[in-house]
Inverse folding.
């Protein structure tokens, strides 16, 4: 199952990259279509070639958040209603996530990543995210958190829940969004 | 209450149910070490070189021991040079028969392509490194896998072997940074309930040792750090009793000393590593507990790669006595791996500065006679 989900996630992320690049020169629906074609071709036909094999080796586990962000972005491009994250939210997330990565890599003596292996801390964190979603009126984060918990409990990928709701690629994505907003984009 | 809040309430309820199931399914980890039977020097002394191999070209390095029925298998990485994209895992079977130990033909154990195809999900494997036996499952090993960059970008793969090579493999989830950068070197630690822990080490930035615990399904369930003021890697853990153990650590920063960390709660927490009095040229050591606080160790002397010596401690690693020099400095012997195989000890190491693999068998009577 983790192999199938990884292929789906790989396809979505590839489609997102094509959408983001093609979106500069063609209409969003064309960019999404191009992304879908490229993703399908790579995952269905060329999955065992160097590029997708390397992407999986480097980026897996993809988790739930990265594909969900990609789908959300593409959906927004097609005109679907998307509740945007606030700039302050993104700044706080970026600071906390970088601190989390640093602590997990031994910069600080605490290791928050190991909380993601244990059912009780994971349950508490998911409920806290659901509460945050209720307070902000944004269902996106609770949905991803619970989807991640489903996959984590079922063993469909990483044995650590954080791998479903966080991904290092979110750092450059968050920075790009902040820069775009600073530039008035 | 609007549709949004109803939906979020439903998500919360789903989460509570999932958490309940996860808590019900979870089994608390055992934190009491299993202790091997004490080793007594009985019978005639035995010391025998059972395998001596030299790669036709390039490197053959970091041998591990996989205990098998009727003997053991020596497993190492071999290629044109360390961390190159032509390195595969090779092995040789050692069998103990009526005529003593016999070494079979050395051959590829698994290749990078075979491992990449067996991975779940399938992925590129560029090069391979240290391997250790997964003692929790038959015919399984943990392999150090690199798909991009050098050793600091390595991951640890849990590899199930079949007749013709790996049949399934998956990376252990040990880090939130693209699942990098963990490696293995030392054999597993056994707990009183039969579960195992894997000594690993993190080699990016704040380098440290890691004790990896597994749940019932063999997935990572917890990790504990073993840290020190230097760059502590390649922890070699020796349980002393149910609660206490020592971890000998190599300092990647070349302090020229072996470092030691201790636990008194079964590995849940580890003291900040301290320098021992033993010289060490930033090289890994191999050790086994002999019972009653005695430890047998294979380690290098401090000059260059140094002599490969066999040492014993009678006081839980506080002081050491050199039993014998197994290989002189000129032999370039490094990366020892020491395991008990039945009533004997099997020691393997690379020689000729990573160009070959040797293995010797000896018993406690031979150690006592030195």
């Amino acid at each position: 199952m983790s192999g199938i989900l990884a292929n789906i996630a790989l396809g979505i992320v590839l489609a997102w990259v094509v959408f983001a690049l093609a979106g500069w020169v063609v209409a969003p629906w064309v960019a999404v279509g191009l992304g879908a074609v490229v993703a399908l071709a790579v995952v269905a036909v060329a999955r065992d070639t160097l590029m997708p094999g390397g992407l999986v080796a480097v980026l897996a586990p993809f988790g739930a958040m990265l594909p969900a962000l990609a789908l959300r972005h593409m959906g927004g491009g097609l005109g679907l209603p998307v509740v945007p994250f606030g700039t302050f939210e993104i700044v706080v997330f970026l600071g906390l996530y970088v601190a989390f990565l640093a602590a997990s890599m031994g910069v600080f003596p605490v290791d928050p990543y190991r909380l993601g292996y244990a059912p009780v801390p994971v349950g508490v964190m998911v409920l806290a995210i659901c509460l945050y979603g209720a307070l902000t009126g944004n269902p996106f984060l609770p949905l991803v958190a619970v989807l991640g918990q489903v996959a984590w409990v079922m063993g469909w990928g990483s044995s650590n829940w954080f791998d479903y709701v966080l991904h290092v690629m979110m750092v450059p994505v968050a920075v790009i969004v902040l820069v775009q907003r600073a530039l008035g984009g | 209450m609007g549709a949004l809040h109803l939906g979020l309430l439903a998500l919360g309820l789903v989460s509570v149910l999932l958490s309940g199931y996860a808590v019900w399914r979870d089994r608390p980890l055992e934190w009491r070490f299993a202790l091997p039977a004490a080793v007594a020097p009985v019978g005639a002394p035995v010391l025998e070189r059972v395998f001596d191999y030299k790669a036709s070209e390039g490197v053959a390095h970091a041998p591990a021991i996989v205990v098998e029925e009727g003997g053991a298998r020596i497993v190492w990485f071999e290629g044109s040079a360390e961390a190159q994209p032509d390195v595969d895992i090779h092995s040789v079977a050692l069998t103990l028969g009526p005529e003593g130990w016999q070494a079979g033909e050395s051959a590829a154990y698994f290749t990078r392509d075979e491992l990449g195809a067996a991975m779940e999900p399938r992925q590129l494997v560029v090069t391979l490194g240290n391997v250790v036996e997964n003692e929790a499952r038959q015919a399984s090993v943990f392999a150090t896998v690199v798909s991009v960059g050098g050793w600091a970008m390595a991951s640890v793969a849990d590899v199930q072997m079949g007749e013709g090579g790996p049949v399934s493999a998956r990376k252990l989830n040990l880090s939130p940074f693209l699942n990098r950068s963990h490696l293995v070197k030392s054999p597993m630690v056994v707990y009183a309930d039969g579960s195992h822990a894997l000594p690993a080490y993190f080699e990016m930035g704040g380098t440290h040792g890691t004790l990896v615990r597994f749940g019932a399904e063999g997935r990572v369930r917890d990790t504990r750090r073993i840290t020190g003021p230097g760059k502590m890697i390649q922890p070699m853990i020796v349980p002393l009793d149910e609660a206490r153990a020592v971890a000998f650590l190599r300092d990647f920063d070349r302090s020229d000393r072996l470092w030691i960390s201790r636990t008194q709660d079964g590995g849940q927490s580890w003291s900040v590593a301290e320098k021992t009095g033993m010289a060490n040229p930033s090289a890994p050591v191999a050790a086994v507990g002999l019972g009653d606080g005695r430890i047998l160790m294979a380690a290098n002397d401090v000059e260059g790669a140094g002599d490969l010596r066999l040492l014993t401690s009678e006081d839980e690693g506080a002081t050491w006595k050199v039993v014998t020099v197994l290989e002189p400095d000129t032999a370039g012997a490094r990366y020892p791996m020491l395991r008990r195989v039945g009533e004997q000890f099997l020691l393997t190491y690379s020689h000729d500065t990573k160009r070959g693999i040797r293995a010797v068998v000896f018993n406690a009577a031979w150690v006592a006679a030195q």
